[in-house]
Every structure is written in C-alpha cells, then in structure tokens.
Specification:
Layout (H helix, E strand, L loop, with lengths): L1 E10 L4 H17 L3 E4 L2 E10 L3 H10 L5 E2 L2 H5 L6 E4 L3 H13 L3 E4 L7 H14 L3 E3 L7 H11 L6 E9 L25 H16 L3 E9 L4 E3 L5 E3 L5 E8 L4 E7 L10 E7 L2 E5 L4 E5 L23 E2 L9 H15 L7 H20 L3 E2 L6
Parallel strand pairs: 1-3, 1-5, 3-4, 5-6, 6-7, 8-13
Antiparallel strand pairs: 2-3, 8-14, 9-12, 9-18, 10-11, 12-13, 14-15, 15-16, 16-17
C-alpha cells in the first residue's frame, strides 16, 4: 500500500467545533483508521499543522494528541510549499482575510461557515478562489447526518408524493453564564463580533432546504434578543447585542413552504435537538439528527378533535421508524473525505464557496427582512 501525504493547515482548532468535530472526529479519526483509502493500492495520510493565536493552547493540544507541528504564524505556514490545504474554523470576523491569504498562497481551501460577513465578501472569496484555480469547499455537515440521509432516501424514492411543507425546530437553552457556565462562547451573542443565531443557522437552513427540497426563493423572518444580559468566560456581565432566536418562513422553488424556528432560548421538548417534519400528499416524515419516522397516507389515523376528554391516542406510536440499512460515519468526517478525494483525485464536489455564499445571502436577507418587517425575494447568486 502506497502512502500519499497531504498537509493541512488547520486554523481555529483550539475552538469547540474546530477541535471536536474537525480535528479529533475527522482528521485524527482518519489517521486512526490508517488513512483514507484512495483505491489502486494508495492511501491518503492527512498531516495536520495546527494554527492559532494562543501558543500555550496549541502546544497543549499538540502534546495531547502526539502531534509535532503547530504555529501561531499563519503567514509562515501559508508560505510553506509543503502545505496543501488551508482549513478555517476561526471566528467569523477573521475568516475572510485568512482565506484570501490562503488562496493567494495557492492553497486549496476548506472552511466553516459563514464564509464572510456579507454576501459581497462571500462572492469575492468564491470568485478569487475560482480565478486562482484552487479547489474550495464549505462545511455543510447537516447533509451527512443519519436522519437527513434517511430523509433524502425517502425523497429520492418518491415517498412523499408532492411535498407541501417543511417544519423545522432547532435549539436548546444556552445558560446565561451567571450561575452555570454557558455552553457557547460569549462572542456568539455580540453582533459586533459576528454573533447571532441568524448568521449562525440560516446558512445551515439554506443548504438543507436547497439540497433536499429546492432553492429558497423568498424569506420572511422575525428575530429577537430574548436574553439581553449574559456573562462571559471570565464571569463578567455583558450586553447581548445579537439575536438569540429567529423565526423564519421560506418559500421554496416548486411551491413548498418551510417554517424553521431557531433558538438558544428554548427548552427541549422533542426527541432530538433539531427535527424537520415534512408533509406531502402521500406521506409525512419527522427527521432528526439520527432518526427518521414516517406515516404513509394508507396508514394515517383519523384524529378527532374533542377538548372535553383526555387524548387517548398515542400519536407518536402511530409512526414507523425508518431503518438504518447502512452504517453512518461522523458527518464532518464524511464530508472531509469527499473534499480530500476532490483535492487529490479531482472527483466531483459542489459544496464550494459559491454554495457558502448562498448561505451568507440568506442570513443577510433574513436580518433585513426582520429589520424591515417584510418578505424579501432571494435572487440566485452566481460568479
């Protein structure tokens, strides 16, 4: 077996997502399995170069996982001709500048989202990377979740007939930080630092809706900052200036309507942290992170509205579980594998910076819709 090494500059891996999902559960997991099998007796071996601003944190992380290469000097790493790929999981406000440097250095780019602070910046990155001839990809991890893969199987098989509507519920209660530590970093709640649930989640909803049901053609949104005072990592109170909840209605190409609630101020009363209910003329489904349940038209019960007596029907028991029928890997790792194959084998890959720009556009228009109190069309974006 021939080993082929690809060196990846990983910027922002001291953060929650960069560390857990991208470094540990994707790149290091690939190394633990012996590399990525490319076929024809060749294995791809990912070699991470850790990049960040905090030297002690980088050193400790490298020592914890037996890694030897790390740096606080991004420019020096990008100037290294042996580095093939630049990955970005930094705070949003620092991302566009770093990606621009990487592209000019001739590196292939893989990045978290949102890719830029606004649509103009996101499109500029897509045009730059395309013009420079480097390969580029954007993390769209929800598409690789077991629950949504099962949902896509149903769609592709024509289970729903005509899809009428999509209802999404996402969120959980993020502690304010005073008497319990917050589960999310404080910058998420400061708009001046690129925070806000619309900027965070609308890019996810764009690609989920686009890939599974059709392009978003219009958006109506209402946003709120339900918890105006929070406490940061040092225990100091601060004013929350970013939205912590968003309520969106999305018209989809083909006629279906999607409604998605996103909130960091909701206590969970559902089976999973995110669930999508899809209703069609021939059947319905409820898909979460891992599970998916269905109810076909031929097995749809006849509920009777009677507020004078207790409900006797076990509604959840009237749905059928969709079987796995396959082994599902970590969604982040699965997309990493596809991007790496795209880089080294030139296999097709369409989750690129232009796709990332569509997510930025939807977030931008969602905030504008909320500010102006009206529905806004979502034009198609192109290079």
């Amino acid at each position: 077996m021939t080993r082929r090494t690809v060196r990846i500059a990983m910027n922002g891996v001291t953060g929650r997502m960069g560390y857990r999902q991208h470094l540990v559960r994707s790149i290091l997991a690939l190394r633990e399995q012996g590399g990525l099998d490319l076929g024809n007796g060749e294995t791809l071996w990912p070699e991470p170069v850790l990049v960040g601003r905090r030297e002690p944190a980088l050193r400790a992380l490298a020592e914890r996982h037996g890694l030897t290469e790390w740096s606080t000097d991004l420019d020096a790493v990008l100037a290294d001709d042996t580095v093939d790929i630049y990955f970005d999981a930094q705070v949003t406000s620092a991302r566009a500048e770093a990606i621009t440097k990487a592209v000019h250095a001739g590196k292939h780019v893989y990045t978290e989202k949102p890719t830029a602070a606004d649509l103009a910046g996101a499109l500029e990155l897509a045009r730059l990377a395309t013009g420079k001839g480097v390969k580029h990809g954007v993390v769209q991890d929800k598409l690789f979740l077991p629950g949504l893969l099962k949902l896509k199987r149903l769609i592709d098989g024509g289970f729903f007939g005509e899809i009428l509507s999509v209802r999404g519920e996402f969120g959980y209660w993020v502690f304010e930080g005073d008497w319990q530590d917050a589960q999310r970093p404080s910058w998420n709640y400061r708009s001046q630092d690129g925070g806000g649930i619309v900027v965070d989640m609308f890019p996810h909803w764009e690609y989920v809706l686009h890939e599974l049901f059709g392009r978003v053609t219009s958006v109506t949104a209402q946003v709120a900052t339900h918890v105006p005072r929070r406490w940061d990592e040092q225990g100091k109170p601060y004013e929350a200036t970013a939205d912590d909840a968003a309520y969106g209605i999305f018209q989809l190409e083909g006629g279906a309507i999607a409604q998605i609630n996103s909130s960091w101020t909701v206590r969970v009363n559902r089976d999973e942290l995110v669930e999508f209910q899809v209703d069609g003329t021939h059947g319905s489904a409820v898909a979460g992170l891992r599970n998916c349940r269905v109810q076909h038209r031929s097995a749809t019960p006849k509920p009777v509205w009677n507020p004078d007596i207790p409900a006797t029907e076990p509604f959840r028991d009237q749905w059928q579980e969709v079987p796995d029928n396959a082994e599902f890997d970590n969604g982040f790792k699965a997309q990493w594998e596809l991007f790496l194959r795209h880089v080294v084998l030139d296999e097709p890959y369409h989750w690129d910076l232009l796709a990332g720009a569509r997510g930025v556009q939807l977030a931008e228009l969602g905030l504008k819709s909320a500010a102006e109190g009206r529905r806004l069309d979502v034009p198609e974006v192109s290079l």
